[in-house]
């Protein structure tokens, strides 16, 4: 009668915490992870097993017949978690740029060790794959020029993304008054023209609209004054007046 391999007779104990600490353990079988474990391999040591990424398995030469003790395997598990955190980060960043805090939150949600997360973030910053200063500058310019948002709105957004206040101040300082004025004027003009009713109603709704979009009260008042003059004198006269400003 054919006997099954020893590891098949016992319930497989998964995870390094189940491994005995006082003996050398031989790899009895290596198998590719099933669906949901892409890029991972299950390493069997008789009745014990653990899962590692393929490149970690190759790096530590985890082939059938090799021996490891629990201390060595603990180091391998940590190396695997570091590599796992790095791969997760690259996948997350591939969709769009992220701030340091956004990435940190994502990795911690995956129940990675805080020390591993910090080490991963430091590596990504060194490789310039995470750069809060560049992110803040690009975000601020895109929001002003492409989305019709004011600096107050942008400051709040970047704070929520965990960007340092000094970096936010630097990014907003990179946006000129003329750029924010043009952004506010375009947004205000669109809202003004879409609003029906008397000038007072247009003024009220446009004022609220621009304030909600993060433009300062002073800038908003200037936009309303410009729009009122345009309605009173006509578009051509307004254009001529702006050329002399």
From TrEMBL:
Compartmental location = Cytoplasm
Q: Which organism is it from?
A: Paenibacillus medicaginis
The chain positions of domain RecX first three-helical read 85-124
Tell me which UniProt keywords the record has, alphabetically: Cytoplasm
The RecX third three-helical domain is annotated at 179-224
Q: Has the keyword Lyase been applied to this entry?
A: no
Summarize the protein's role: Modulates RecA activity.
- Which intervals hold domain RecX second three-helical? 131-172
Which protein are we looking at?
Regulatory protein RecX
Which InterPro entries did the record assign? RecX_HTH_1st (IPR053926), RecX_HTH_2nd (IPR053924), RecX_HTH_3rd (IPR053925), Regulatory_RecX (IPR003783), WH-like_DNA-bd_sf (IPR036388)
Q: Which family does it belong to?
A: Belongs to the RecX family.
């Amino acid at each position: 009668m054919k006997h099954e391999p020893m590891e098949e007779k016992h319930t497989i104990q998964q995870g390094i915490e189940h491994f005995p600490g006082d003996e050398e353990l031989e790899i009895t079988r290596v198998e590719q992870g099933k669906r949901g474990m892409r890029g991972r391999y299950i390493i069997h040591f008789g009745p014990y097993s653990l899962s590692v990424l393929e490149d970690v398995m190759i790096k530590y030469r985890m082939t059938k017949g090799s021996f490891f003790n629990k201390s060595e395997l603990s180091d391998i598990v940590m190396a695997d978690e570091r590599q796992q955190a790095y791969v997760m980060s690259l996948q997350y960043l591939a969709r769009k740029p992220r701030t340091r805090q956004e990435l940190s939150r994502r990795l911690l949600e995956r129940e990675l060790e805080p020390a591993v997360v910090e080490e991963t973030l430091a590596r990504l910053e060194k490789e310039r794959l995470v750069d809060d200063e560049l992110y803040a500058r690009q975000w601020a310019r895109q929001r002003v020029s492409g989305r019709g948002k004011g600096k107050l709105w942008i400051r709040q957004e970047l704070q929520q993304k965990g960007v340092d206040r000094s970096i936010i101040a630097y990014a907003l300082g990179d946006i000129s008054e003329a750029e924010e004025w043009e952004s506010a004027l375009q947004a205000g003009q669109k809202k003004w023209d879409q609003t029906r009713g008397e000038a007072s109603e247009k003024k009220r709704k446009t004022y609220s609209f621009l304030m909600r979009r993060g433009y300062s009260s002073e800038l908003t008042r200037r936009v309303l004054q410009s729009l009122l003059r345009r309605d009173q004198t006509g578009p051509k006269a307004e254009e001529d007046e702006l050329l002399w400003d």
